[in-house]
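Colleagues,

Please find the record for the four-part complex below.
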Amino acid sequence: MKILIVEDDKDLREIISASLEKERYVVSLAPDYRTGIQKIEDYDYDCILLDIMLPDGNGLDLLQELHDLGKKTSVIILSAKDSLEDKVQGLDLGADDYLPKPFHLAELHARIKSLLRRNQREGERKLQFGNIEVFPDHFKVMVEGKEVDLNRKEYDILYYFMSRPGRLVNKNTLAESVWGDHIDQVDNFDFIYAQIKNLRKRLKDAGATPELKSVYGFGYKFVVE
Amino acid sequence: MKILIVEDDKDLREIISASLEKERYVVSLAPDYRTGIQKIEDYDYDCILLDIMLPDGNGLDLLQELHDLGKKTSVIILSAKDSLEDKVQGLDLGADDYLPKPFHLAELHARIKSLLRRNQREGERKLQFGNIEVFPDHFKVMVEGKEVDLNRKEYDILYYFMSRPGRLVNKNTLAESVWGDHIDQVDNFDFIYAQIKNLRKRLKDAGATPELKSVYGFGYKFVVE
DNA sequence: CTTCAACTATTAAAATCTTCATGGTCTCAG
DNA sequence: CTGAGACCATGAAGATTTTAATAGTTGAAG
């Protein structure tokens, strides 16, 4: 497990570095923005600890750069400025966690561990309900071992219900979750009806056991009889 | 400004309450999940301070409930368990901030203030570049005071560039930001070319001064000559 | 200055998604 | 039990978005 520490405070850098090496991580160090960028371009890290305020630039730009390079490395932001703005912006730009200084090393270790564990599992996730399996990392749906072809919206809806089997789902919530923020308070749900209809047909044709039950005046519920 | 505190620890509840009242907030209290839900259903709050571990339920469920009720109230999670899982899940479920216990009252106040300020401004936001104005709260675009009609994807792309005027935008980044996570590493950008072409025509027809320049081998840049 | 390959633009066709019109279903009041 | 009104389902038309086919550009190598 390789970790890059981008941090200008020499003492802090060394302390973190030493503590991580003791845990058998492979650690790289960058004292400033420029060095950080360069290392990121040249190597692949499993995790980056990123200070926001660097002598020659802003850590958030580095985050953007990372994103533009298409790298999916996990990032934990370390910042003295515990401002909500920074935090929100950081998480927005794809940081995975935010740790305000000062922090305990134990805390940092815990977060790194949790993050890496989470990444590990990526690529082998699977949702299952009745005889339906959904593999979110490949946007693939299988019923009884046979692949089922769905359109994007159908997939999104199915995925949403697979994540909440048996649970009552309000139409407004569904709309917001699947269609996004453009939907505010809509006055008609025709677009939902249409997609639900298509999805039901797909599932029935594929022989799926779970069914999308309507709940009058409220929404839907995904259940297996 | 009305604030609801859902927290089972009586002492903490009273301390927070007192400190907020001193700042002239109107404060409501709920010692448990059940009471919390009920108050949320009955009243509209500007902000909710939510403990995760309650005697009769999990605060995260309350968050979900809030969402299902279609309420957009800002929520700050207060939790003793400073686990990344809880935090991520909480922010996922729409919490606006997360404050691990113990915390300073000053910190809490700062976050509340920042949150309320953010909400306040909602509804009057505007992006401007060249002679184009975008009103994100109404999905409305104006050029020289005249409204321009765009399709959703066209709007999304324009919005993206309006937020980053003059900045070089990589096609992969654009794809991921506008089309979402379904796009991973695509091998052809035909869908972008098609939409860019349409958006350019719309802007030109409307007489907009900024232009979408292609940058060979990389992406686009939104500039005014 | 050519030439070539990679990249971008353009148009039309295909696929997908939303809207519309219509008819069936559910709930509640009487 | 019945009727009225709200709610949901359905098929088809309409709009939007993506894909495919083709043509035009750009930048690098010779």
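The interface with chain B takes residues 67-68, 70, 82-85, 87, 91, 97, 107, 110-111, 114-115, 139, 152, 170, 172-173, 182, 185 of chain A (CB under 8 Å).

Comments are welcome before we finalize the supplementary table.
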